[in-house]
Design goal:
This protein is α/β, with parallel strands linked by helices and 260 residues long. Strand 8, helix 9 and strand 9 form a beta-alpha-beta unit. Strands 5-4-3-6 form a 4-stranded parallel β-sheet. It contains 11 helices and 9 strands. It starts with 9 loop residues before the first strand and ends with a helix. The model has no long low-confidence stretch (mean pLDDT 94). The structure holds pyridoxal-5'-phosphate. Pyridoxal-5'-phosphate binds next to helix 1, helix 2, strand 7 and helix 8.
Length: 260
């Protein structure tokens, strides 16, 4: 099922005094399911298949990376897919490029009101949804659940545990950093840079781990999710020119900008 998965070795980027900066190019792990999303979906796909589900269902905003990767994964692994998308008003609009691609890959898009969307994790809402789509395996928004964290824990290898003191990543729903924390050695420190404002993510991540060797910095610089400015875009371009490293402004660009 995962023939197209590639092991990714770390790429040494630069020295800053005593500090060696390396990057793990998770965007190269799979031709269509990019980066951490592959790890988050891996055990969910296996579970859905094992339990005999034919459809995968998940949630997201109109520009959700998760929905996009989810549509790609469902297509690659021959599941039908359903995307529950925030915003009823989008129903009558031309699909943005991400949703258009998802739709082309066979994803059935269902647009719901923001009010309903806020209720999507409640047992009542989920029960109704499951009744409506009895063959669907349901994955939460952002894809973060126990099986996702089992997958993201595999991002770190033995050599990563032996060779690095600090592990940094971008944070959205917290599933990726939770897996990294699980997999980290006690001498290591895991630092997350949130794409969102506010520090509610600490509580989210504490649901998944009892370890204390981590911290998350909120996005106090750019104003929150999907907000960025010309300086960030310029920074991303400079990093690409200097290191041939393609960052993006929602997650990785912010994480790198705040670190440097
Ligand atoms: C989705 C995504 C994240 C966020 O992952 P979470 O597990 O939701 O915290 C971070 N970086 C990139 C590039 C992403 O696509």
């Amino acid at each position: 099922m995962f023939e197209q998965f590639k092991e990714i070795s770390n790429q040494h980027l630069d020295h800053f005094g005593e500090i060696l900066l390396s990057v793990k190019r998770l965007d190269l792990v799979h031709p269509t399911i990019s980066g951490n999303k592959f790890f988050k979906l891996k055990y969910n796909l296996l579970e859905a298949r094992k339990l005999g589900y034919t459809q995968l269902l998940s949630f997201g905003g109109a520009y959700s990376n998760h929905i996009y990767a989810f549509a790609q994964a469902a297509h690659a692994f021959e599941f039908d897919s359903i995307g529950i998308i925030r915003g009823e008003e989008l129903q009558d609009q031309v699909l943005n490029p991400m949703l258009a691609t998802a739709s082309k890959l066979g994803m059935q898009l269902q647009f719901i009101s923001r009010q309903d969307y806020r209720r999507k994790h409640t047992p009542e809402f989920l029960a109704k949804l499951q009744q409506h789509y009895p063959n669907a395996y349901i994955i939460p928004e952002g894809g973060s659940n126990d099986l996702a964290i089992k997958g993201t824990a595999e991002i770190l290898t033995d050599s990563d545990r032996a060779n690095f003191d600090v592990i940094c990543c971008a944070v959205g729903t917290g599933g990726t950093i939770a897996g990294l924390i699980h997999a980290s050695a006690s001498h290591q420190h895991v630092i997350g840079f949130s794409a969102l404002k506010g520090d509610f993510l600490n509580d989210e991540v504490r649901k998944w781990t009892t370890q204390n060797n981590w911290q998350i910095y909120p996005d106090d610089t750019f104003g929150g999710y999907a907000k960025y400015d010309g300086q960030l875009l310029e920074f991303i371009q400079n990093i690409d020119e200097k290191y041939q490293l393609p960052l993006e402004p929602i997650y990785t660009g912010k994480a790198w900008r705040i670190q440097t």
